[in-house]
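User: My instructor asked us to take a sequence, write out its structure as tokens, and then describe one feature of it. I'm not sure where to start. Here is the sequence I was given:
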Amino acid sequence: MDSSLGILEGADILIDDDCISGVGHGLEAGDAEIIDAAGTIIIPGLINAHIHTWQTGLRGIAGNWTSVDYHKNIHRGIAMSYTPEATYLGNLIGAWGQINAGTTTIMDWCHVNATPEHTDGAIDGLEESGIRALFAHGTVKPEQKEGEKHFSEIPHPRSEIERLRKGRLSNTEALITLGMAILGPENSTKEVMLHDFALAREFGLVSSSHTWNRKNRVVKEGFYPIAEAGLLGPDHNIVHGNYLVDDELKMLIDHGVSVTATPTVEIQSAKADPLCGRVKKLGDKVSLGSDTDVFVASDMFHVMRFALQFQHAIDCREEANDNMPIEKLATSPYEALEWATIAGARALQMEDKIGSITPGKKADLVFLKMDDLCLQPIHDPVNTVVLFADRSSVSAVMIDGNFAKTAGEMTGPASAIARKQSDLNAAVQKVFELAGYDHLAR
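Assistant: Let's start with the prediction itself. The structure tokens for your sequence are:
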């Protein structure tokens, strides 16, 4: 993903501590440890730019749900009974699952933070996993009760952002850094929206908001008031945006706002197409996210492939003439790999650290075994990675210069991982009981 280096065959990668210090052929390594990576394709660690990792424990419960079902059953239901323990375990198992499948960095869009204990549990899980993450602190969305404000009228809690920014997430060079998952124009009043953007800007944080532009949007003017206030820029990320009109989407991109598409989930109940192609036509690149395990697997190989193939369908639909075949595809596998790597790095404002195998960047690498029965023979490595590889192809994963997976196995003891998986299942069953939720009856 570094255009100045291109795609190299039989090259060396020199790693010094946590960073890549050299890429090329015949590098002098001195007394460095030699890792024989012959027979592998090495790619930058995949970046999942939007995932609700805490929902790992709810994996697969929403296979036949619409978005209306999701908000009713999750946000106004199960989430209100979620415990700090279930949050910690969901983030731990979810992050391990991401690493196992070749993702080295996530934007953990955590909106189950009913208490500081939930927040700390979520961060504990991320830190224990060894993943690189932007922890985007979000807020809960309960059913409005008589005499209480609707969540759209409640500003993002300054006290929590200040506690985290000046406390355990103060180090911007750490594996886990702080961001804000804010309500935005879809889900907050104009006053709250302006407050939240200003709070993120004050603390120098990346902010991210779910965006649709459906008829039930709270701030009908959308992002224009934020732009007029001078608070809109590359430090904001929008997710989805399927119903955005061209003028507003162009305005956002012109201000440097990044766009994250989550096609595997968006297609579940959205009537409009993912934004991959529309953003491209406006001169930018989307990043990709898996969104939530309640609907579908958070495997970035699957997300990347689905995003490309669905965009092919859109391209063909737009170019079709008298139902004759089109002569050239408008979107390439290389672009899809960009969406899942360097574009994701930009969305997290980490483009100077990750997203490509470039000297000076962090040593976040994924090794794919070339002798995999599902990959051989390999004629084009990019096509192989995007169109054929999956989590079973991942033989090793390195994050910050340390191996988190080697020889096809996670580096942590299998017994410890199994125990945490069992703990997560028990914690979620307790949540179901507290919520009075019978998932088998749905």
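For the description part of your assignment, you could build on this observation: The longest helix spans residues 414-435. Try explaining in your own words what that tells you about the chain.
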